Amino acid sequence: MKAQSPADAAGGQAGERPADLALRSIVHAFGQLERVMQPYFARFGITGSQWGVLRTLQRSEAAGEAGLRLTDLSDRLLIRPPSVTGVVDRLERLGVVVRDSVPGDLRAKRVTLTRKGRELVARVLAAHGPQVETIVAGLNAGEQADLHRLLGKLTNHLEGLLSKQEAK
Amino acid sequence: MKAQSPADAAGGQAGERPADLALRSIVHAFGQLERVMQPYFARFGITGSQWGVLRTLQRSEAAGEAGLRLTDLSDRLLIRPPSVTGVVDRLERLGVVVRDSVPGDLRAKRVTLTRKGRELVARVLAAHGPQVETIVAGLNAGEQADLHRLLGKLTNHLEGLLSKQEAK
DNA sequence: GAGGTTTGTTTAGCATCCTAATAATATACG
DNA sequence: CGTATATTATTAGGATGCTAAACAAACCTC
User: Fold this and answer.
1) Chain B span 51-70 residues with beta carbon within 7 Å of strand D
2) What pLDDT score does A2 carry?
3) Which of chain B's ends, N or C, has fewer CB atoms near its CB within 10 Å?
4) Computed from CA positions of residues A15, B52, B30, B157, in that sequence, does the dihedral angle turn out positive or negative?
5) What are the tens digits of pLDDT across the range A57-86?
6) Residues whose CB is below 7 A of strand C
7) Beta bridge partner(s), residue B99
8) CB B111 within 8 A of CB B98
9) How far apart are CA B87 and CA A160, in angstroms?
């Protein structure tokens, strides 16, 4: 064994199998997506993660809910509570959200948009539709739907794997 | 659903258009993918990013190249040089790579796998094929190929957008 | 109702990524 | 040749995400 025989056999060409290609294309696409979106959000003085919180709060408000607890945001954004704490901290510092108390539960805190926050959300939303269309313009409507279907199927499968992991 | 007029018109349903769905499914899929992969890499004492460097070095080595400069890694991994510095720092601390000098260029440093690093790569590669297959098992081979094709098309489009951004 | 468990949030500490700025070397051009 | 520019790597500082652990409050069980 003087050369890279085991490595080569196992991995030298592994990157070319359909499974590897599919996986890498997800990682790659996501990376590029982030790079395109980041300057877009920066125009509004926020980050993509912050927009996730703002959009979620706005939708909740539109649905008539009185703010969301940190835990609710964690569930909807699929990020852990400590991460939510950090993002909300920065949004609060920006003055676009506030934490108030939840009547009947002294542990919980409810996050709501401020007037300034609502104005920001409106400003972003006004630009959002065209921006999203620009981003996915590389695919026609049918391809967009196909992509959504395939990724949905994959995500369902991954969620199954995750449940098993947690169960262990 | 009669009230919330501005919010509803601008954003309430925006998440349901094919373009939005496609975009969100990428973000969602990537997030789940990370969650599944992270414990897998943790078994080997590394992170996904660190594996990216190790795999790239191993491929380079298999191609007969004498190590890669930090800049080469930056190009291949699509991350900025300062990020490469950090990942390589930690890999060096783990003893799986080393930085040596590049003959003829005192600025550059070449990163190569150590013996320990090569052993680690071999160990990961041995488990890698089955793991990748498990992950994408939610899709059949044709779907995997479709996904790769669609994401490739999207990524090409995004790269076009990025060039324009940089050109500004 | 007391004690144990669960839930909601935060803190601490780590890894990743970024941009901007620094330092050092290489290259190119006048 | 000598200065101006470009390249290579790093540092500094910020944002995001994670896990583990701490804490308080709520719930549940006996």
Assistant:
1) 69-70
2) 38
3) C
4) negative
5) 999 999 999 999 999 999 999 999 999 999
6) A 35, 38, 69-72, 74, 81-82, 84-86, 88, 99, 102, 105, 107-110; B 47, 49-50, 52, 78-80, 82-83, 86-87, 90, 104-107
7) B111
8) yes
9) 31
